[in-house]
Amino acid sequence: MSENLNPFAIAQAQLDEAAAILQLDEAMHQFLREPMREFHFTIPVRLDDGTTRSFRGFRVQYNDARGPGKGGIRFHPDETIDTVRALAAWMTWKTAVSDIPLGGAKGGVICDPREMSPGELERLSRGYMRRIAPYIGPTRDVPAPDVHTNPQIMAWMLDEYETLVNHHEPGVITGKPLALGGSQGRTPATAMGGLFTIRNAAELLDMSLNGTSCAIQGYGNVGSWAHRLGTEKFGLKVVAVSDEFGGIYNPHGLDPQVVSDHLWRTGKVADCPETENIANAELLELDVDILIPAAIENQLTANNAHKIRAKIVAELANGPTTPEADAILQDKGIYIIPDFLCNAGGVIVSYFEGVQNGYQYYWEEEMVNERLDRKISTAFEAVHNMAQNRQVPARVAAYLVAVTRVAEAVRLRGWV
Ligand code: GLU
């Protein structure tokens, strides 16, 4: 039988496992299995050739018991309501495991931003904001960047929102450019947070990071920053990286500056000087100590999990490992840093951004990184302790910590 790759079915199955261990009462379990609210809409966009095209968009507010919804917006051709639901569920567990006072939400638009001009992207971004503006805000739901969205897109969305409400409201969206109330350290935050968790895992495993080999799948904001910071701040030897078009390999390590210059010139990492081209599938199976999936969901599956040779898999992407692959990696004794812990750095610094917007006073990057380290390392420790106490893998432990916190807030509110 082939694997069920529907991300929402996977997210629900993961919750079911945690609910069974926690002996969560049935009404609470059923409530947490579904989004509290979702919006589906159509965004007509005038294209550069004068024609109009309608795009489908979604915003799912999965659970806001612990605070306003929080989560990025993806622009992706393969987006579906079920991917957005899963990502919104994972945001709920991510903010809870990080112990920040926010809930979980996510947005998406079915589109291929690589085929759109800057003008078309701006009109789509503004159109998206017009659809969701009545339902969001700093005390309701706060969007942010994700796959194929970036600070410029956040800036257009912010401007559209502020135009509609006729006042400044920088805390309505995070991941903004610095000039519009963004936070120092937000752009590299997901990668930085992930590297802090890798450092913590390496300590547990008595591994040094200096010169340790590493492969990174995905070269968007998260993957490219993981390459740069992993090399410059943590001494990792990143021997392979890839984007959706293919990968590159050099056993002596890849210079992040050379790769980003090449990417800037050509639009892909393949054919970078002093490297050998490899297929994306080969990258995952390389003999490296640390493997970082930093692209999209369902990359480590029942088909390739038995070929993974890394000691640590650090899930900087959301949902990169299917449940069947997860079981195979566990059996092989691979230490998995589960996605909603490993990649929580982005939303943690988004939370800091919202705090700074609220009191209109801005922190230095050093302070942001120090506080990020403290938050994500506290979460790492809570998950590790839970894993030890319950004798479960880190992913299950992360669910136990997060679900307990969300359920407590739901109960205190008297919802269930
Ligand atoms: N899109 C990021 C994530 O998946 C960040 C979300 C946010 O900052 O709200 O965690």
Which key terms come to mind for this protein?
416 residues; alpha/beta; Rossmann fold; seven-stranded mixed sheet; five-stranded mixed sheet; 12 strands; globular; binds glutamic acid
Structure summarized in a few sentences:
The chain is built from 14 helices and 12 strands.
Could you characterize the architecture of this molecule?
- With about 425 residues, this protein is of the alpha/beta class.
- The chain folds into 2 domains: about 35-180, Leucine Dehydrogenase, chain A, domain 1 (Rossmann fold); about 190-340, 3-Layer(aba) Sandwich (Rossmann fold).
- About 45% of the residues lie in helices and about 15% in strands.
- The protein has helices at about 5-20, 25-30, 80-95, 120-130, 150-165, 190-205, 220-235, 255-265, 280-285, 325-330, 340, 345-360, 365-390, 395-415; strands at about 35-45, 50-65, 70-75, 105-110, 140-145, 215, 235-245, 245-250, 275-280, 290-295, 310-315, 335.
- The strands form 2 sheets. The chain has a 7-stranded mixed beta sheet, with helices on both faces. A 5-stranded mixed beta sheet has the order 1-2-4-3-5.
- Helix 10 links the parallel strand 11 (about 310-315) and strand 12 (about 335).
- Helix 1 crosses helix 14, helix 4 packs across helix 5 (about 150-165) and helix 6 crosses helix 12.
- The longest helix has 26 residues, at about 365-390.
- The two termini are about 35 Å apart.
- Glutamic acid binds next to strand 3 and helix 12.
